[in-house]
């Protein structure tokens, strides 16, 4: 069964500092990986996704993520955080069967940005 | 193109009642999935519908059910509500053959 681990429950960074959110997955085949962001009381917004090809993927709002098969990781990064990035971030893995059957989510990392 | 819409946004019910939540997918999307989000359990998959058929189901009791209409709109129903059903219910839609899911704003259900 697929699973996702986000080891950091809560991270605090200063505005302008760099950010890295960790995500480790467990999946028997090539995973389809996603990062979503959720602001309080809102739904999930897709930041970026990885299916295949270039292991460094660019997303919206200046985010990027790198797929590392050897480490089973898909960490999210941003070179300079803005106060508006404060939110909860979820990593997810899909089955990659071509049918959007199910996403398995990590427990999320809450990002706090200090001014 | 309009995003996924969910109605109502907020709902308060009492134990034992039943509730129906509605989801309208992005135009052209025929797959609709439902998720439950709670502080304790996180995001959990409920079920997925495609072309009016349930294609996948999560590990939830039979009190949770859903359906999809010919226009791809979907509803989920929870009967005999329990306090533990209080959650944010998220709907997501996707194109046929694609794994990327796009989420609506959710319905916040509170059971008293």
Overall mean pLDDT of chain B: 94
Oligomer: heterodimer
N to C succession of SSEs of chain B: EEEEEEEEEEE
Tally of DSSP β-strands of chain B:
11
Count of DSSP-assigned helices of chain A: 0
Based on CA atoms alone, the radius of gyration of chain A comes out at 14 Å
End-to-end span of chain A in angstroms?
Answer: 41 Å
Percent of sequence in beta strands of chain A:
over 45%
* Helix-strand makeup class of chain B: mainly beta
Q: Could you give the distance between the termini of chain B?
A: 37 Å
For the largest beta-sheet of chain B, the strand count, sense and barrel status come to: 7 strands, mixed
Helical percentage of chain B = under 10%
Number of DSSP strand runs of chain A = 12
The largest interface is:
A-B, 27 and 29 residues
Radius of gyration of chain B: 13 Å
- Tally of contiguous helical segments of chain B: 0
Classify the helix fraction of chain A into a percent range. under 10%
Shape of chain B: globular
Structural class of chain A: mainly beta
Structure characterization notes:
The complex is a heterodimer of chains A (115) and B (112). With 115 residues, chain A is mostly beta strands. Chain A is built from no helices and twelve strands. In chain A, strands 2, 5, 6, 10, 11 and 12 form a six-stranded mixed beta sheet that branches. In chain A, strands 3-9-8-7 form a four-stranded antiparallel beta sheet, with no helix packed on it. In chain A, strands 1-4 form a two-stranded antiparallel sheet. The N and C termini of chain A lie far apart (41 Å). Chain B is mainly beta and 112 residues long. Helices cover 0% and strands 54% of the residues of chain B. Chain B has strands spanning 5-7, 10-13, 19-24, 31-38, 42-50, 53-57, 64-68, 74-78, 87-94, 102-103, 107-111. In chain B, strands 2, 4, 5, 6, 9, 10 and 11 form a seven-stranded mixed beta sheet that branches. The termini of chain B are far apart. The model of chain B has no long low-confidence stretch (mean pLDDT 94). The A-B interface holds A 32, 34, 36, 41-46, 49, 51, 90, 94-108 and B 4, 6, 31, 33, 35, 42-43, 45, 48, 50, 55-56, 58, 90, 92, 94-106, 108.
């Amino acid at each position: 069964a697929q699973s996702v681990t986000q080891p950091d429950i809560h991270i605090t960074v200063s505005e302008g500092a760099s950010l890295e959110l960790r995500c480790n997955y467990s999946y028997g085949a090539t995973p389809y990986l996603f990062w979503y962001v959720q602001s309080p009381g809102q739904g999930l917004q897709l930041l970026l996704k990885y299916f295949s090809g270039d292991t460094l993927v660019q997303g919206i709002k200046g985010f990027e993520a790198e797929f590392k098969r050897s480490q089973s990781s898909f960490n999210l990064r941003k070179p300079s955080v803005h106060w508006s990035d404060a939110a909860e971030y979820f990593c997810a893995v899909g089955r990659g069967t071509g049918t959007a059957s199910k996403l398995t989510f990590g427990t999320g990392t809450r990002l706090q940005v200090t001014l | 193109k309009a995003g996924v819409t969910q109605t109502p946004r907020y709902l308060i019910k009492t134990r034992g009642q039943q509730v129906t939540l509605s989801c309208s997918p992005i135009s052209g999307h025929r797959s609709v999935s439902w998720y439950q989000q709670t502080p304790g359990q996180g995001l959990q998959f409920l079920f997925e519908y495609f072309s009016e058929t349930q294609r996948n189901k999560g590990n939830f009791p039979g009190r949770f059910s859903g359906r999809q209409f010919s226009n791809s709109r979907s509803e989920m129903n929870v009967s005999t509500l329990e306090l533990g059903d209080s959650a944010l219910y998220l709907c997501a839609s996707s194109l046929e053959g694609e794994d990327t899911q796009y989420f609506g704003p959710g319905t916040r259900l509170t059971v008293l």
